[in-house]
Specification:
tRNA processing; single chain; five-stranded mixed beta sheet; Pseudouridine synthase; 3 domains; TruB_C; 7 helices; about 300 residues; alpha+beta; globular; Archaeosine Trna-guanine Transglycosylase, Chain: A, domain 4
Amino acid sequence: MRRRRGRPLDGWLVIDKPSGVTSTQMVGRAKRIFDAQKVGHGGTLDPLATGLLPLAFGAATKTVPYIMDGTKIYRFTLKLGEARDSDDADGNVTEVSDVRPTDDELRAALPALTGDIMQVPPVFSALKVAGERAYDMAREGRPPELPPRPARVDRFELIERPDADTAIFEVESGKGVYMRALARDVALACGTVGHITALRRLRVGPFTEADAIVLDKIVLNDENPHASPELLRPVSTALADIPAVALTKDEAVSLLHGQALSLVDLMDRLPQIDDEDAPIRAMEGGRVLGLCRREDGFLRPVRIL
């Protein structure tokens, strides 16, 4: 079997992505800088966007879905009066308007875009239509008709109004919410058009700006040609927001062998969760064993780490 190139590193690296590069390019840079075998990311950021991009090394790639399911916080700047085909500053102007809503009018439009909503994704997105990427079709001059998709927006606030053409918002959301679509839709709801000129991600699941590093500031030299693995956070960091149950040594052994545990035996230790399908983090002391779910009176392993 062919040996994979690079070091077998495991853990999370939270980087502050600069504007003008893709998430995939940042993964490639990190892979080279750390000489790592396997690297993925926990949620794409548009090239224009900056901010938190969690990178998963090795075994951490198993926990990517739990990062992507976590709460995200964004701040974006909406330029009013000008629509663009990409819904951000990288696109071409498609429509203009002289209408400039007041602060009160902008705020009045937000409740309809908050909660469980149906959102039409931007045509410049990675969604597939009949096997083709929507952005490829849009670039070729045949933008697809994308149907509305369910989205969850927990908080949508106007936080600053620098001038009549500009409004700055902060959004707290679940996965799969397009900030470019929110910007487009709040402008339309106010009888005008608009697009995003700046977008920054402030939080992803348990990761905040305080956790982020600038990849280009990692110093390499002849003595240290690759970044230190000590910069990586433990794989379990991604699961910090998930409620935990403490297991005995014998229970841990059973779980690691794929066996389900009786909920009756765990009753005094189980976290109080309203959602029966919510994942539970199995712990033995300070060690994360994996993720489980409650099912038919048992705690069953879903993902062993």
